[in-house]
Amino acid sequence: MLGVFKQDDSLGRRLVVILKGFPCSWGRCTFCPFALEQSFNLREVMETNRKIVKEAIEIAENEGYERVAVFNGSSFHELLYDTVERLRPLARNRIFEIEERSEYVTKESIDALLNYYSPRRLVIRVGFEVFDEGIREELLRKGMPNSEVFRLARLRKELREMSYPVEFLIYVLFGIEYIPEEKVIESVRKFKELFDGVIAVRYRKYLPNHPREVPVSRELASFLNAEADLVDWGGEQWEFPTRKRKGSK
Questions:
Q1: How many Å is the maximal CA-CA distance in the chain?
Q2: Domain residues for 82?
Q3: Domain count within the chain
Q4: Which of 40, 100, 205, 237 is the most buried (most CB within 10 A)?
Q5: Is the residue at 154 inside a domain?
Q6: How far apart are CA 45 and CA 16, in angstroms?
Q7: Is residue 240 part of a domain?
Q8: pLDDT digit of tens for each residue in the chain (249 aa)?
Q9: Sheet of strand 12-18: strand arrangement
């Protein structure tokens, strides 16, 4: 679903901008549906994103949004330069949130983003999905071994020591046949120790060859609501009081 969306939840009041992208350079994850919205057509991608970014800038400026999240179904570093350039007014002096595959996240790439966009704070989301490397690599086929998890954890520690305005939020996937609930709980706890927060995402099956959805217990739902910084239920029936994340705006 492309476009500009207003959100106000446990991460705070923010504008969510969903752009059209080219197919992900990795493109092997067994559960990912984002190929359904992607395109090889350069003009289509460029013109679609120009319209979306223009609308987002108008809303952000007219309605005073201080946090903007930009997603494109793959990594931010795979966006067209035309789109990257047009996003500058959205990022400047705001909390600017992006998604990346882990291989794009280095001190050099973060320095470049901070220098180019001048955000108040840069928030990088990374989809490790599960702490268990066997599940992540053999079943989900993420292409992000534990060496990447710990490399980013060391990078995060280094950046904190240098007072960089950067946070790392990690996706944890649940409600999918490959990840038992005890592994979801383990993942949330481990990633919270290593990074700045966790976003738990309820899996949805969009294509026939994707893994099955599985029910989510009340116990897991309660745990996620208490421990995750944000739970994306994707229309799930569970409802809990909204929690404001510490430091969210």
A1: 48
A2: 3-166
A3: 1
A4: 100
A5: yes
A6: 18
A7: no
A8: 899 999 999 999 999 999 999 999 999 999 998 888 888 999 999 999 999 999 999 999 999 999 999 999 899 999 999 999 999 999 999 999 999 999 999 999 999 999 999 999 999 999 999 999 999 999 999 999 999 999 999 999 999 999 999 999 999 999 999 999 999 999 999 999 999 999 999 999 999 999 999 999 999 999 999 999 999 998 544 444 445 555 555
A9: 3-9, 12-18, 67-71, 95-100, 121-129, 166-174, 197-202, 230-232
